[in-house]
Amino acid sequence: xxxxxYDATYxxxxxxxxxxxxxxxxxxxxxxxxTAPFDASAGVYGRWFPGSVLNTCHNAVDRHVAAGRxxxxxxxxxxxxxxxxxxxxxxxxxxxxxxxxxxxxxxxVAKGDRVIIYMPMVPEAAMAMLACARLGAVHSVVFGxxxxxxxxxxxxxxxPKLILCAxxxxxxxxxxxxxxxxxxxxxxxxxxxxxxxxxxxxxLAATLKPGRDEDWLAAESAAEPHPCVPVAGTDPLYxxxxxxxxGKPKGVLRDNAGHAVALHNSMRMIYxxxxxxxxxTASDVGWVVGHSYIVYxxxxxxxxxxxxxxxxxxxxxxxxxWRVCAQHGVKVLFTAPTAIRAIKKEDPEGKxxxxxxxxxxxxxxxxxxxxxxxxxxxxxxxxxxxxVDHWWQTETGWAITSxxxxxxxxxxxxxxxxxxxxxxxxxxxxxxxxxxxPGQIGSLAIKLPLPPACLPTLYxxxxxxxxxxxxxxxxxxxxxxxxxxxxxGYVWVMSRTDDIINVAGHRLxxxxxxxxxxxxxxxxxxxxxxxxxxxxxxxxxxxxxxxxGVIRDDSDITRDLVxxxxxxxxxxxxFKDAMVVQRLPKTRSGKILRATLRKIADGESxxxxxxxxxxxxxxxxxxxxxxxxx
Length: 630
Ligand code: COA
Ligand code: AMP
Known about the structure:
alpha/beta, Rossmann fold, GMP Synthetase, Chain A, domain 3, 2 domains, seven-stranded mixed β-sheet, 18 helices, binds coenzyme A, binds adenosine monophosphate
C-alpha cells in the first residue's frame, strides 16, 4: 500500500494530534506504555507520554542486538585527522556502553545525576551519551571549541557528579589539549565533580590529577556491564546549553519519551531512512544536530551512523565529504550550508566530487542557518539529488520545517526551509500576536503545545523559559526567527529577531561577546553585530568606544579584545575583528542601534530610526565601516 503523502499526513496530525503521536509511539519499546499521549495540565505547557517508562539506550542499542542486528555497523568512525576508519557493530556498542555505564555507576552515578561530556569527535563521545541514558543519568555535552570559562559556566549550572573528557581534540594544524582546559574550568566553577574519566588519545596524553581523575579505558575494562535502568518518559535525558541573548547560556532540557518517539519517527518521515541504511551527519556531537542525527535518531532507527572527525576542506581536500559518502555507502548526508560553501570555494567545478561513486547517496539535508539559494542550486546541479534545507533549533531537537522524503515531498524551493513538520503549527505573527497574511513577514511562532522532543522547559529555569519563549505571544512558542509562510505553506526563515548570530552554523550570542568586551579596562561601551561573510554566513564585528583619557594604539586594543573573546568564549566565536570608534549610534533613551549598524556594515539600505539621538553619526559610521569592509 502506498504511504500517505505529506498533505494527508499533516492533515491527519492536525485533526487528531494525540492519535497521530500514539501511532508514532509504536516505534518505541516501552517498559510501561504511556497512560495518555499528552497531559495538558503538567509542566509549563503540558508533557508528552505521561505515565510511560522506558530506556532510551535500550531503544537505541539493546533492542537492535536482540532483533538480530548485532553484526551490523552501528557507528563508523571516519577520522581523516588520524587517518583511521573504525567500525563498531551494535553488539560491540552494547558491550562497551554497558561496561562504561558500569564504570560510571561504580563511581556513584545514578538516575537523575548529571554528567558533563567534553569530547571531540570520537566514538567514545557517543558511547558516553548512551551510557548516561542507560543509567538514567542526564548528560550535558559541551562543544570542544568553547573556552574554559564557558565550560565552567556549564559545570556550575549542571552540577555534574562525573565529567567524561578526552585528553585532546584534533584541529587541522594543531592539537588542542582538552584536559588543561577542563582543569581550569573545574577550578573556576564553584561546583566540583566527584571524578573525571579521561579518554587518553594517542596524539596527546593528559596528566591525571590523583584522587580525582582516572583513566577511562582502565575503568571501563574493569567494570561490570550495567543493565538499562527504567526511567519515566518525562524524566530528562539531557541538557544542552545554547546561546541566549545574555552571557548566561540556556540549558535546553530534553526528556526521554518525546525525544525517542519524535526522533525515531523523523528518520523515515523526513529523511526516508530505514533500519540498516547508512546516514551521515557532518556536524559535531556538541551541537543539537549532532545529538539528534549523529547519535540518537540513527541508532533509535537501527541505522548505521558515520561519525566524522575532520573538516569539509583541508582534511585532506574538498573531496573528503564525497570520499566518505562513497566509501561507506551513505544514503543521506546532513550538514551545514557553510560546509558546502567551503567545498564550493575550493572545488567550484566539482572535479573532486566527480571522482567518487555517489550512486548510493539519495539526498543532502542542510540546516544550521538558511541556505543561500546559489549554494543550494550549485550543489544540487552537481549531485543531481534532492537538496533539502530544513529549519530547526536546539530547543526543538528536530526539524520544525523540512522536505519529507518519507512523504513524497522533496521538491526544492531554494531559500525556503520547507513545510511544517507534522506536529508543528507554524505561523508568522504581527506585533500584536495576530497571524499576518500569507507571504508577509512576521515573527515565526509555533502554536502550543510544542510536539514531542521539543524542550519541556529550561533546566532549573521554568520562569526563564516562559519569559524567553512563551510570553511575547500568548499561546505560542516564539522561535526568535522572523520570516513568512507563503500561500502554499512553505516557510521562509529570513533573520533572527534577537541578538543571536549564526557563525559557520554555530549559534552565538553577541550579548555574551559584548559582556567580554565591556570587561576590558579601557572600554567605555561597545556593540557586537553579526556581519555577512561569504563562507561562514555571518561573523561578529566588535565596535568599542574607549574611556576618556585612554591613550593606546587602536591595534593594541583590538588585539586584546580578540584574545579576550577567544579566552573567555572560545575559538568557535570566530571573533577576529574589532574597531575603535568615537561614539556609537543610540536612541534618545540610550539603546545602541545594533540593527542599523549591521545594515550599514553589510552595505544594505536602512531607514534613519526616528528615535535616534543624533542622526549625523550614521554618515560617520558609514564611512568608518565601509572603509573597514574594503
Ligand atoms: N575544538 C576546538 N576548537 C574548535 C573546534 C573543536 N571541536 N571546532 C572548531 N574549533 C576552532 C577552529 O579550529 C577555529 O579556530 P581558529 O580560529 O584558530 O582557526 C575556530 O574554532 C572556528 O571554527 P569554525 O567556525 O568551525 O571554522 P573553521 O575555519 O575551522 O572551519 C568550516 C570552517 C566552514 C569548514 C567549518 O566551520 C565547518 O565545517 N562547519 C560546519 C558547521 C557545523 O557543523 N555546524 C553544526 C550545525 S549543523
Ligand atoms: P541552533 O539552536 O544552534 O540549531 O540554531 C538555531 C537557529 O539557527 C535558528 O533559530 C535559526 O535562526 C537558524 N537556523 C537553523 N537552521 C536554519 C534553516 N534551515 N534556515 C534558516 N535558519 C536556520
